[in-house]
Design a protein that fits this description.
By secondary structure, the protein is of the alpha/beta class. It has a single domain, classed as 3-Layer(aba) Sandwich (Rossmann fold). It is about 45% helix and about 15% strand. It contains 8 helices and 7 strands, in the order ββαβααβαβααβααβ. It has a 5-stranded parallel beta sheet with strand order 3-4-2-5-6, with helices on both faces. Strands 1-7 form a two-stranded parallel ribbon. The protein is globular and about 50 Å long. The chain binds adenosine-5'-diphosphate (ADP).
Length: about 190
């Protein structure tokens, strides 16, 4: 069997806590794995635990976190991997810096109003931020700078998870990072990616 590989790329999810980055990125990862693609999900929490253990949430530390994720994602993507990142990455200039130093950077703005994210409060962090137990929380007392020209926007207060995932997969197919299913079938028994 021959490996037919698409282009590597960086799928850079950004958005408020609770907007849906983890949920959509896991859905995309699952779909790409089912199609035998080379894919690696760099989850924000996992990266902070291992690669960025010493970093806190000051602007400087958040920027360092994003730059390190960008560096690793770039190593992966230039070797044909779809590198998926799902950190809040709140500052526009730092995301744009990563965009400039990488190839095939796809910014996915996971867009949900603050009220929606707060009502979801998946990790209970908004309640802690509101009660002052944590400071410098993105969207509450630290800024989130929306992307100005993202390649993809997922409106997760209106779309289902499946719709958001499909939007991303369709974009990857159009870019040639993953073959669409009809192309894949026509390649018969080859592994397609
Ligand atoms: P984040 O990683 O951005 O902090 P999570 O993915 O952990 O956010 O949580 C988002 C929550 O929103 C989950 O409980 C998820 O089920 C819910 N949700 C509702 N609609 C969507 C959607 N279209 N896309 C992603 N998440 C959604």
């Amino acid at each position: 069997m021959r490996l037919v590989q698409g282009k590597g790329c960086i799928l850079w999810f950004t958005g408020l806590s609770g907007s849906g980055k983890t949920t959509i990125s896991m859905g995309v990862e699952h779909e790409l794995k089912a199609r035998n693609c080379l894919v690696e999900l760099l989850d924000g929490d996992v990266i902070r635990k291992h690669l960025c253990k010493e970093l806190g949430y000051s602007k400087q530390d958040r920027d360092t976190n994003v730059r390190r994720i960008g560096f690793v994602a770039n190593l992966l993507s230039r070797n044909g991997v779809v590198a998926i990142t799902a950190a809040i990455s709140p500052y526009r200039a730092t995301r744009d810096e990563v965009r400039r130093m990488t190839e095939n950077f796809i910014e996915v703005y996971v867009n949900a109003p603050l009220e929606v994210c707060e009502a979801r409060d998946v990790k209970g962090l908004y309640a802690m931020a509101r009660s002052g137990k944590i400071q410098g929380f993105t969207g509450i007392d630290d800024p989130y700078e929306e992307p100005l020209n993202p390649e993809i926007v997922c409106y997760t207060a209106q779309e289902t998870v499946e719709e958001s995932v499909a939007k991303v997969i369709n974009y990857l197919e159009r870019l040639g990072c993953v073959l669409n299913l009809s192309e894949a079938v026509s390649l018969d028994s080859e592994i397609v990616c």
